[in-house]
Specification:
6 helices; 22% strand; alpha/beta; binds magnesium ion; Rossmann fold; 9 strands; binds adenosine-5'-triphosphate
């Protein structure tokens, strides 16, 4: 489903090569974790694979099509429906409630029914144990609660591929396990998940664990 070939990246023409000819393939129904020390390029790689950050060299093929050769409209369609992405840092609109933050990216498209989206969002929040936070504002949530909200937003349209950057970092192990089990269930229902993490617990859930310095 996702295949990256010879991905290389430096920032701002800096001499330091962050990613050097990385190859990676992810199949339907796979849960893959990428590990490696801080600064090794995990977030850079995930953003490239998600179609958010242009690589210097190489291709990212999703269903055989190069993400970076798609038009803006085609790429936003992919982001709305096929690839969910949870960045490492939480991003929320501060004057919107949690529920609004989750559905907002999807409501102004003609193929989405806002009520249906809200219902789906609430069902996810409920399963993650934070439904009662739906009407609060982002600053009123803890870091772990915010992580779960970001996950719900990325899962809202049931994307075939979920890319999550450090989904459990900084959380207590109980909350971390809730999230990992959620990702695992998502994979079991036929989706694919790719995470970058420092969390050793991921090894109990992921089908493949890759060291970024060895791919
Ligand atoms: N926008 C940027 N401009 C310049 N350098 C950057 C930028 N983003 C990241 N870097 C550098 O690229 C390297 C890789 O960063 P990246 O965030 O991909 O690492 P990481 O493996 O995700 O680290 P962590 O485990 O701390 O999240 C780091 O040395 C970082 O300083
Ligand atoms: Mg990172």
């Amino acid at each position: 489903m996702l295949s990256a070939e010879k991905i290389s990246k430096r920032y701002n023409n800096n001499r330091r090569q962050i990613l050097d000819s990385i190859d990676l393939t992810l199949d339907e129904g796979e849960f893959v974790a990428i590990m490696g020390e801080s600064g090794s390029g995990k977030s850079t790689l995930l953003a490239i694979l998600a179609g958010i950050l242009l690589p210097e060299e190489g291709q990212v093929l999703f269903d055989g099509k190069d993400l970076y050769s798609l038009s803006d409209a085609e790429l936003s369609e992919v982001h709305r429906k096929k690839i969910g992405y949870v960045p490492q840092s939480n991003f929320f609109l501060k004057n919107y409630t949690i529920l609004e933050n989750i559905v907002e990216p999807f409501v102004n498209t003609n193929d989405a029914d806002p009520e249906e989206l809200s219902e789906k969002a609430l069902a996810h929040l409920d399963r993650l144990g934070i439904k009662d936070l739906a009407d609060r504002y982002p600053h009123e949530l803890s870091g772990g609660e915010q992580k779960r909200v970001a996950l719900v937003r990325a899962l809202l349209t049931d994307p075939r591929l979920l890319i999550a950057d450090e989904p459990t970092t900084g959380l207590d192990s109980e909350t971390g396990k809730i999230i990992l089990q959620y990702l695992s269930d998502y994979v079991a229902s036929g989706h694919s998940v790719l995470v970058a993490t420092h969390d050793e617990h991921v090894k109990e859930y992921a089908g493949r664990v890759l060291d970024i310095t060895k791919i």
